[in-house]
């Protein structure tokens, strides 16, 4: 479709589970590097991408809203509220 077949890529890992494991991250590094024209040389590579410079954050550190920064009272909550808000007359 749209003459973009050359932009489709697939990595088939049938013996692995669906997660954010190293093999999936390696595939996406290459995909993004190619299609977003990123400098993959900026990521250390020695027989595979080295990620020892990466800091993995706790789930709580990734949340936008928490006890210190609560969700606004007028925030849309749930799919039904969002879809109702987006309805056009």
What's this, in brief?
By secondary structure, the protein is mostly helical. It is built from three helices and no strands.
Features:
mainly alpha; 0% strand; 89 residues; 3 helices; single chain; extended
From the structure provided, what is the oligomeric state, counting identical versus distinct chains?
A: single chain
Binned strand content: under 5%
- Main sheet properties: none
The topology string of helices and strands comes to HHH
Q: Quick one: how many beta strands?
A: 0
Shape annotation: extended
Radius of gyration: 20 Å
Q: What is the tally of helical segments?
A: 3
Task: Give the uncertain stretches in residue-range form.
Answer: none
Average pLDDT rating: 89
Structural class determined from secondary elements: mainly alpha
Distance between the termini: 33 Å
Helix proportion of residues, in percent? 25-40%
């Amino acid at each position: 479709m749209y003459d973009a077949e050359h932009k489709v890529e697939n990595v088939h890992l049938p013996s692995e589970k669906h997660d954010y494991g190293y093999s999936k991250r390696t595939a996406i590094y290459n995909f993004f590097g190619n299609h977003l024209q990123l400098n993959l040389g900026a990521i250390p590579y020695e027989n595979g991408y080295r990620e020892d410079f990466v800091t993995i954050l706790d789930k709580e550190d990734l949340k936008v809203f928490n006890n210190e920064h609560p969700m606004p009272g007028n925030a849309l909550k749930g799919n039904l509220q969002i879809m109702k808000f987006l309805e056009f007359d």
